[in-house]
Design brief:
231 residues, alpha/beta, Spore Coat Polysaccharide Biosynthesis Protein SpsA, Chain A, 7 strands, 39% helix, binds guanosine-5'-diphosphate, binds magnesium ion
Amino acid sequence: MKSGPIVSVIIPAFNEENGVGQVIAEIPKKLVSEIIVVNNASTDNTERIAKAAGATVLREPIAGYGRACLKAIDYLKKSETPPDVVVFLDADHSDYPEEMEKLINPILTNGVDLVIGSRALGKKESGAMTLQQIFGNWLATRLLKLFYNVKFTDLGPFRAVRFLSLVDLDMQDKTYGWTVEMQIKAAKKKMKFAEVPVRYRRRIGFSKISGTVKGTIMAGYKIIITILKNV
Ligand SMILES: Nc1nc2c(ncn2[C@@H]2O[C@H](COP(=O)(O)OP(=O)(O)O)[C@@H](O)[C@H]2O)c(=O)[nH]1
Ligand SMILES: [Mg+2]
């Protein structure tokens, strides 16, 4: 049984039967108390595989990345032993779960509230991100500087946040605006944030967002709207 700070990992997953088991297997178990996979209306074996790999599985029947994350936060709020730190991680094996410790450490040792794993600062496998995605993240982070005067280099999904700060952020976005909303609100609340370089590789399985025209346009649109509406 793990002692010390309580760390929970939240993995939103929509049809990730080929990736989710490996992602869970690669999470450093000595750091983590609970791995929560939110099955977002998958039609494949995501849920069975996540359970077999040892995760707690929650179900969110309505699609949406943010909605799935909110489901897990609600669950943690009701827990008798709420975590000290929450880590968000995608189910597609693009991130390197073994890098989790460097996301968590600034929170545990340095009073940081939010740590973003930056793919812009880290090493990306060729083809791991589309050009539109790289450009979109660059543009979004420029706008964050312009409107909120904060310096981020990425809106990456792999991130750690102090649980009490996360609750204080009162997250609302149900879909693709989720990551940028968190960064904007942390900036507005003058929370202490940091970035650490993370590596990024080609996903297992098919992209639902950046790899599709519809997903790219919807995500780009939602991210820009979220930046503008919070100013
Ligand atoms: N909960 C939920 N997760 C989703 C949805 N769409 C994608 N995901 C998950 O969000 C993560 C990122 O999606 P992905 O397709 O890899 O997008 P990309 O990284 O932008 O190409 C993966 O873990 C997906 O399973 C959705 O509608 N709901
Ligand atoms: Mg992905």
